[in-house]
Here is the input.
Amino acid sequence: MTAWFYYLLWMCLLLQVGALVQFGVWLSTGRRAVWTALYCIVALLSAFLLARLYTVFCVMMLTLSWHYKRSKIGAIQVGILSLSVLVYLGIAGFYREWISPSNNLVGTGELAELAGEQDQLVLRYVVANLQELSNLSEVISMTPSELPYQFGTTFTPVIFKPIPRALMPSKPLSASGLFTRQVSPENYDSGFTTAMGAWGEWYLNFSWPGIILGFALTGALSSAAYRAIRATNEFGRVMLYASFVVVLLTWLRSDFNSATTYGLYYFVPAIVTLAYVTHDGRGPLIYRGVPSRRGPLLENPAK
Here is the structure.
């Protein structure tokens, strides 16, 4: 892809960050409802045909925020929303294939027609990239005979993430990068990787005990995150939980290194929103029984 695509993508992500922050302000204060709706629509449309993954992530965070702070979303609404997302993924997938350098509208239409005749439209345009289970079977068959156990080294790239590989050639590879270099070195040299997924990464590091340990830790972490969101009404906590869900789903479809990158895109607006909606800008926050610089808290005479 050309460089302009990534600059445009980052602009869209900044729009999504602004929309999420404004959405939090509206849910917490009720102010600027029209502007909030406009911000969210523009943010979603900006990446609608540019990046399906980021658009779906933004929809997920908006939906979770609405569910926990505005009104509960029932099973019927979830079904309608899921169906709408599937339709969107198909349309955006067709569009992305159409604008690719090797295709045109006629050729893309022929491929879509052929996929329809074979009842593989959904597979081609919606779930074609979910190859993690297939890669897991390959990892199991080639580890440790061809690819040795990594014993946790695929989790360490996050520590050196700010350092460019040009300055640190020995920087550890992510699980997906390591796997791609082994099975498809030509794609790796071209800058492409194939998704590993959390289960494949845990097996690559610690074999079957690693998968058991990974699922146990993920379940415990998910339970703790859910208990934390249920223990408070702060919108910032909801945003942090939504960001956690984004990271978890990203790890299930890629690897830990990629999940942390995606997480930063959404943890940043979550933290900004938390700071914005819990601080009025006039002085330090006042919590229960804690005096501020303005003087001691006054007791209610009616008590």
